[in-house]
Amino acid sequence: MPEKQKNDSNKTPYRSSRWPGRLMMATGILHNVVGLLGSKTRDPLVDAIKAGYLNQFGSSYARSNVLWFMLFGFQMMVTGKLMEVYVLDQQDHRTSPKTAVARSGRKLPRVIGTWFVGIGIFGISTLYRTGAYLILAQGAALLLTE
To answer: How far apart are CA 88 and CA 97, in angstroms?
Structure first.
């Protein structure tokens, strides 16, 4: 019996939180807001909408760029939600949200942090003025989380 207590006391439960997922969702939202505020992305999007939207993005390089730019922002939002759902035990989340936020038996795999660091480095190395610094920081934070 004392051995079992000793083993249980050595285990530090992972303090899960929603910050990694919510930060990724916020990054996706920020990405698309910046896209809508910048004329280089907003104007081709508005032109495509005025032209009827459907099948209007393959007709110009600027329009296809804005399509991929916006899709990447939405993809970050979806990834953030998936991160949040993965970390939180759904049963605990439904019955007691405070408990689910405070403790969870799951944490994000370290490989997610590795991927984010890789994506961040790739983005920064190809375009210095980029938001990829946020992805790099999020990946580093995930790798440094115990």
So the answer is: 9
Do residue 65 and residue 28 come from a single domain? yes
Q: What is the number of other CB atoms lying within 10 angstroms of the CB of residue 15?
A: 12
CA distances from 118 to 21, 43, 123, 129, 139 (A): 18, 31, 9, 17, 8
pLDDT, tens digit, 9 for 90 and up, residues 32-84 = 999 999 888 899 999 888 988 888 888 788 898 889 999 999 999 999 999 98
Q: Is residue 85 part of a domain?
A: yes
What predicted TM-score, i.e. pTM, was given to this entire model?
0.75
Mean pLDDT check: name the lowest of 20-24, 63-67, 68-72, 87-91: 87-91
* Helices of type H across 38-107: 39-50, 61-87, 90-95, 97-102
Containing 1, the helix (H) or strand (E) segment is none
Q: CA 109 to CA 143: how far, in whole Å?
A: 9
Q: Do 84 and 58 lie in a common domain? A: yes
Number of domains in the chain: 2
- Indicate the SS3 state at residue 82: helix
The separation between CA 50 and the C-alpha centre of its own chain, rounded to angstroms, equals 31
Domain assignment present for residue 2? The answer is no
